[in-house]
Design goal:
By secondary structure, the chain is of the alpha+beta class. The chain is built from five helices and seven strands. A seven-stranded mixed beta sheet has the order 1-2-3-7-6-5-4. About 6% of the residues have low confidence.
Amino acid sequence: MGIQIDVVVGYPINDEVERVLGLAEAVGEPVTVTFMWEGREEAERAVLVPAATLALWEHWAPTAYPASGAGEENRAMAEEPELAHPAEFGAFTLFRRRVGGRTAVARKGGVVAELLDPDEAHWLEEKARNVRQGFMDPKQKAAFEEFLARQASLNDQ
């Protein structure tokens, strides 16, 4: 999925978070982030997807990301959703949605990226690519598949 960069950021060190957000905005590709929030034992992994990339994925994906399984649903019902107070990190403000688990990242009043669950980001990218490829004419699609088959795997690079 795009450029994969694992970064560990801590709270409340604002410039760390701001650097990661700026990096994702600059490269225009999804960035995998691991948040180690102060006071929590568990790390929170997310994919920071630039707003334009997310809009493209959501345009081509045929349906919305499926709802979580029954086990996760029961856990979510047991926990009260945390309040969605904005968190500021330098020029960026994070707005966590109480429903859906996404976090919008805004700069100067505009959303520049969203933090998504890694599974949702992967699902959206795959669905969007498959649908988009389905719109190629048959000759172009065959040529593209042949091109992909000739590419070295990521492990060989």
